[in-house]
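Entry:
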Amino acid sequence: FCSKNCTQLTMAAEDEKVQQVKQMELAEERSKIYNFQFVGTVESYEDIASMDKTEFRESILDLFDIALDKDLKELRVEKDDDGQEQHQYKITCGFFLKIKIDPNQYINEEFEKIVDSEHFQGAVYHGFHLSLAPELIRWEGRFKRLHQKDYKAPKTQKQKVKGLSKEELEEDQKRRELNKQRKEMDKAKMEQKKKDKEQKHQALVKEFADNHYQYDANNPNYKKLQEQTANAANDAKDDE
């Protein structure tokens, strides 16, 4: 009797261990850490490569929703040697990020959205306090899967884990609010640009339609103009 119960308890314990291992594997599948790299080339008539990057770094942290400053591993602004224009600059942003979706999907969705909504251009504009917004020439996204050895500290180094202080939390909240306002400003500017473009297009369409109708055979004014021209020609012949 005892032997049978002991066997059942052992099997139950083994089943529980198997379930725990499976849950750990599922959790590992749900979220993985990647080293993403966004490389954008912009055109600016101000030398942003020589400017201070402190505020621009803050803008990039908010733009890519990077929680910790240490996770932004690379931020370089340099002249674009590949471009033909002298006012083109290549901006490289490399950061660690844990995501649940496929990294290719993240690049196609998030990077594309950042570019299409002109949030990246806005980050450059506000981060360097430029007089004119830069124009994005091209961009590309890259990624590399990270393993624990890539981002975990060596075991010999003991690290104390602690939360953010009250001042750090307030600073982070203030930074997020500021970035939210900037995004709203960029969105409003983009909508106004679209509205102005549409109004200009409609004005050109109307002008074309008016000019076309002016010489339309069914236009009463055009018929009257033809009669006046013919009468004037006849009068000139009579005078001769």
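The chain has a mean pLDDT of 81.
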